[in-house]
Amino acid sequence: MSALLEVQGLVKHFVAGRSVFGWPTAHVKAVDGVSFTVEAGRTLALVGESGCGKSTVSRLVLRLIEPDAGIVRFEGRDLGTLNANELRAFRRDAQIIFQDPYASLNPRMTVSQILTEPLALHGLVPPARRRERVDELLRLVGLEPRFARRYPHEFSGGQRQRIAIARALAVEPKLIICDEPVSALDVSIRSQILNLLRDLQDRLKLAYIFVSHDLAVVKHIADRVAVMNLGTIVETADAEQLFAAPRHPYSRALLSAIPVPKPRAKRSRIVLEGELPSALNPPSGCRFHTRCPYTIARCRSEEPQLLADGAGHATACHRTAELPLPDSIVPTDGGFSPALEKLVAAFGSVAEGARSAGVDTVKPMPEAGA
Ligand SMILES: Nc1ncnc2c1ncn2[C@@H]1O[C@H](COP(=O)(O)OP(=O)(O)OP(=O)(O)O)[C@@H](O)[C@H]1O
Ligand code: SF4
Ligand SMILES: [Mg+2]
């Protein structure tokens, strides 16, 4: 069976400076040859530091911006060949939710209007049934239908993200891109939104591209992970494999920054030396060579290709085979620390998270019109 989404050799360079005559003089290599696949009903996490190109990949996948090169196929069809009607149908199949739901929700519209708009736009539900559908959507994301008459500012951050998720679900998509969906939320609310996303995935067979710079969050939601550095993917593998045994020095450094699950588990923090290079002028050869502790002469001149090992684990590093084995972040002698067990349990209570409607009602809300 082919993948739901296939991305091949995606490239996007932005003009970052022009001469007095208007000619481009500098380009940001935001995305520079990115390839990956997403299976139906599964989650691919795109991780990497700020500015590595995660959001640009998202916008390219949704065709919100045009690529300079590369192909995006959705259900086997090249998005670059779709006519206006087909592109409209694709916009129904693929949705996005953002880090800041407040900025993405129209403050002058009630929740009911926000959720009705996509239903009307795509002619999905007859007008007489739309109120009922809005109620269903609110219940689906753990909010009470009586909230439909309220405005976005009357909700807490977690509730606003639930509304944004409901709006994405209104058109019954197959793929949702979640661009840092929990980064702006309190830690206590994060696990509730992650649980909700996982529960919805199970129930509605949704695929996610989960964009994040936070590997601790990614660990609890991803089936596969693609690690990005300066516009390229440096490692991709099943989440379990990547977290247990990251191979690329950059992935190892990123992973070393998340908390060790158990006090006895040995793992040393890898502190990257040097400035984060700019996508405006990425280093020659391997783009990580100015910060990599294993750099050799070849790394400065030759760009490593992303090579798969035959078991679905691909790495772009000249020295993959000869690097020392990484410390495992998963304890082998069973069990986590009590604090981490609590956290894991919170992430694990998937059904509970979605069932408890209004769980993140952190600030009391007056009745509308009160
Ligand atoms: N429209 C644009 N014009 C010029 N440069 C852009 C544009 N959009 C993005 N960039 C640049 O492209 C690079 C990648 O940006 P992008 O927003 O995709 O990164 P990101 O990984 O999502 O970062 P963050 O984690 O901070 O959201 C950055 O250097 C950014 O400044
Ligand atoms: S190719 Fe060289 S510089 Fe790049 S990650 Fe591998 S060892 Fe480090
Ligand atoms: Mg971004």
Structure in a nutshell:
By secondary structure, the chain is of the alpha/beta class. It contains 13 helices and twelve strands. The protein has a domain of 178 residues: P-loop containing nucleotide triphosphate hydrolases (Rossmann fold, 3-Layer(aba) Sandwich), CATH 3.40.50.
Describe the structure.
The protein has 370 residues and is of the alpha/beta class. The protein has a domain at 38-66 and 79-227: P-loop containing nucleotide triphosphate hydrolases (Rossmann fold), CATH 3.40.50.300. It has 13 helices and twelve strands. The strands form two sheets. The protein has an eight-stranded mixed beta sheet, with helices on both faces. Strands 2-1-4-5 form a four-stranded antiparallel beta sheet. It is globular and about 70 Å long. Iron/sulfur cluster binds next to loops. Adenosine-5'-triphosphate (ATP) is lined by residues 14, 16, 28, 30, 48, 50-56, 213, 279.
- Which strand order do you get reading across the main beta sheet? 6-7-8-3-9-10-12-11
The first-to-last residue Cα distance is: 55 Å
Q: Which bin fits the share of residues in helices?
A: 25-40%
Shape: globular
Order of helices and strands: EEEHEEHEHHHHEHEHEEHHHEEHH
CATH superfamily of the domain at 38-66 and 79-227: P-loop containing nucleotide triphosphate hydrolases
Biggest sheet, open or closed, and with what strands and sense? Answer: 8 strands, mixed
Q: Which structural category fits the helices and strands?
A: alpha/beta
User: What are the distinct ligands in this entry?
Assistant: adenosine-5'-triphosphate, iron/sulfur cluster, magnesium ion
Q: Judging by the overall fold, what is the CATH architecture of the domain at 38-66 and 79-227?
A: 3-Layer(aba) Sandwich
Report the uncertain regions: 328-370
Mean of residue pLDDT values: 85
Number of strands: 12
The CATH topology of the domain at 38-66 and 79-227 turns out to be Rossmann fold
Rg of Cα set: 22 Å
Strand content: 15-25%
